[in-house]
Amino acid sequence: MPACPGHLDRNPSVHHLILNDILPPALLEQVRRVLVADNFSDGKNSAEGLARGAKYNLQLASDQHSGMLDAIAQVLYDRAEVQAFATPWHIGRPMINRFEPGMAYGMHSDSAYMGTLRTDVAYTLFLEDPTSYDGGELQILSRGHTFQFKLPAGSLLLYPCGDLHQVLPVTRGVRHAAVGWIQSRIRDADQRELIAKLKAVPLYIGEEPRFRDLAIQTGECIQRLIRMWGD
C-alpha cells in the first residue's frame, strides 16, 4: 500500500502537516539569492493589534518579488498533501522574514483577515539549515499542548490559525522563513481535520482491489461533507 504523503500528527489534540523539500531546486536557489542580496525593513509594518507590539523581526519587501512569492504559493497549492489537509480556496502570497540575534515574535494570534483573505490555516516555510542558528523555534499552543518546530531548509509546516504561537528569540545566526495564510473552503478546524483524515483512507487502500468499493464510498462521504460544511 502507498505511504500516506506528508505527516499528519496522530495526536488528537493537535492537527498540523509537515512536508520536506517542498521547493523545486531552481526556486529555492532564487530565494537564497534574494535573501543575500536584498534589504529588509521593520516587520512591525505588517502586524496588527497586539501582535504589532510583540513583533521584532525584519521583512522582505513583497511587492519587489511578487513573482517569486506567487510561485511559492503556487507550489503549495499544487501539492496533493496541502489540498488534502487544508482544502484551500486561496493560498495567500507569503512574506519572507528575518530574525537576527535578539529578535523574536512574542505569543500572539493571527488576525482573522489579512486584507480580504480569511486566515484559516497558517504556513511557515523554513529557509535556513537549523544548525546555522540557535533559538528561533516556532512554538505553537494547541488545546493544552505545547509544540516546537525548527525544521530543515525547504520544509513546510501548516497549522490552524486559531492556535496561539510565537517565534522564540534567536541567539546566534540568522533565521529566514516564508510565512503566509490559507483561506480554506472549510472554515472550522475540527471539520477540516476530519476531512483530512478521511482523505488519507483512499491513499492507503485505493490500490487494493478488495477495498475499492470502500475507497469509493469514502470519497463519496468526503465530497458530501465538503458540500455540507463548505463555504
UniProtKB/TrEMBL annotation:
Stretches assigned to the Fe2OG dioxygenase domain: 90-184
Origin: domain of life: Bacteria
GO biological process: DNA damage response; intracellular iron ion homeostasis
Keywords of this entry: Dioxygenase, Iron, Metal-binding, Oxidoreductase, Vitamin C
Alphabetical list of Gene3D superfamilies matching this protein: q2cbj1_9rhob like domain
Annotated protein name in UniProt: Fe2+-dependent dioxygenase
Cofactor(s) required for function per UniProt: L-ascorbate
Gene Ontology MF annotations: 2-oxoglutarate-dependent dioxygenase activity; iron ion binding; L-ascorbic acid binding
High-level lineage: Bacteria, Pseudomonadati, Pseudomonadota, Gammaproteobacteria, Pseudomonadales
Keyword Nuclease in record: no
